[in-house]
Amino acid sequence: MKAAFMYGAGDVRVESIPEPSIVEPTDAIIRTVRSCVCGSDLHPYHSMPDSESGSPMGHEVLGVVEETGSAVSTVHTGDLVVSSFTYQDNTCVHCREGFHVSCLHGGFFGAVGVGLQAEYVRIPLADGTLVAVPDVDETGNGSEELLASLLTLSDVYLTGFHAATMGRVQSGQTVTVIGDGAVGLSAVLASRQLGAERIILMGRHTDRTDLGREFGATDVVAERGEDGIARVLEAAGGDRSHVVIEAVGHLPAYEQAMGVVRPGGVISRVGVPQYKEAPIGNPLFRENITITGGTAPVRRYLDQAIPHVVAGTINPGRVFDVSMPLSEAAAAYAAMDAREALKVMLVP
């Protein structure tokens, strides 16, 4: 079968490897229907040291169950399933409290030799990781849009939803979203779903911010620094934002968030931090600012999100603007790195 590996910065290769098999009774084997490249995949694409063995890539997948271990009971052969980007048992204390990324028995795809940019994948702890999509087949009942939106539930949309949830977005609030990537746009859609009245999207790419407006952004601010802060305050009617979602991961974006959050407000971070330290001192303390967010526990939200997507209440799959064969994964990474694509779907 074909699978994508990264051998160093900018070096992605699609190779032929044996198909996976059941190792533990809690495993399932799925045949990939759709996978994709994530913005976070670009971090190692920029910085990974050269490796002779390569690292399996990909952590987002929509697939069909081909085989299950003897202990698997919640999914069955032939089910169309969404996998969260982490695997977890869904029963440990952290999972029960809604933080599945910290599962006592789980882990991250790609870190255990299982990458999801592949034709077939072995899913550990399948009962806690896979969720079946009822009454939908592998064609999305003939809808490519439905397949795309279901795929976003593996990570990107529910990461945006997690940001809005941890930010405690409520009806009538003003929310500023920093970053016009797929996660930022997903956070716009999620904030609208949770009832935000004014959503200010900070982004510089018109094709992306236009989609942000369609997702619910009421204002777009292209400026950065002090000019950006002033423009956000102007858009918010002279005040700052109840919630700021930082979906970039670079220090200037975090500092921008500090400048536009109002007293008593929340900064919710879901951009993977590309810095070791950031200011949290007296200004945030004095104004009672909450800092929250983190790696999204996608499994926490899957059961409630799938029916919304199937019913067409939300269509987060619009963040996919390019589709490529899995065999062209290297070109997919290059396109996203060059900002020629917002998010690339990979088709086996």
Structure description:
It is a single chain. This protein is α/β, with parallel strands linked by helices and 348 residues long. It folds into 2 domains: 2-155 and 297-347, Alpha-Beta Complex (Quinone Oxidoreductase, Chain A, domain 1); 159-293, NAD(P)-binding Rossmann-like Domain (Rossmann fold, 3-Layer(aba) Sandwich). Helices cover 30% and strands 25% of the residues. The chain has 12 helices and 18 strands. The strands form 4 sheets. Strands 3, 5, 6, 9, 10, 17 and 18 form a 7-stranded mixed sheet that branches. A 6-stranded parallel sheet has the order 13-12-11-14-15-16, sandwiched between helices. The chain has a 3-stranded antiparallel sheet with strand order 2-1-4. α9 links the parallel β14 (241-246) and β15. α5 crosses α6 (182-193), α6 (182-193) packs parallel to α7 and α8 (225-235) packs parallel to α9 (251-260). The longest helix is centred in the C-terminal third of the chain and has 14 residues, at 298-311. It starts with a strand and ends with a strand. The mean pLDDT is 96.
